[in-house]
Amino acid sequence: MEAEFFPLHNQNWSRQNVGKYSCIVVFLLFHIIILTVLVTSIASIAPEVQTTLKDVQVIMPEMRRTLLDLGQLIPEIKTGMNILKQLCQQDPACIV
Q1: Are residues 85 and 96 in contact, defined by beta-carbon separation less than 8 angstroms?
Q2: How confident is the model at residue 6, as a pLDDT?
Q3: Which end of the chain is more exposed for a tag (fewer CB within 10 A), N or C?
Q4: Residue among 27, 6, 4, 24 at smallest CA distance from 16
């Protein structure tokens, strides 16, 4: 049993095909370089991201408590503003 053998020097490589393959190789190399730069830049900020996430875990409960306190204060602030508006309506020199 014999297989056919096609030597490389017998294949027809046209300039157009070589140009296409060259463009594809340049394109792939460019993407590899860009991805390498991207990964190294992300790796350099990874410790900062971890620190930031720890800070966010501390800040979120405090922010929630602050918003709950503000939610309780808003009706009092609104009542105070209505009282101030009534007082200003009584005094012509009052400017709001």
Answers
A1: yes
A2: 64
A3: N
A4: 24
**Interior/surface letters 86-95, b for 16+ CB within 10 angstroms, e for the rest:** eeeeeeeeee
Q: At which residue do the structure tokens 């971890």 appear? A: 50
CA–centroid distance for 19 within its chain:
38
In the numeric block, the tokens 């991805």 are attached to 35
Every domain of the chain and the residues it spans: 13-44, 59-96
Do 58 and 65 touch, CB atoms closer than 8 A? no
Give the model confidence (pLDDT) of 30-48 as tens digits.
Answer: 999 999 999 988 888 888 8
> Going by C-beta distance under 8 Å and a sequence separation of 6 or more, which residues neighbour residue 87?
94
Q: Are 77 and 89 in contact (CB under 8 A)?
A: no
The whole-model pTM stands at 0.40
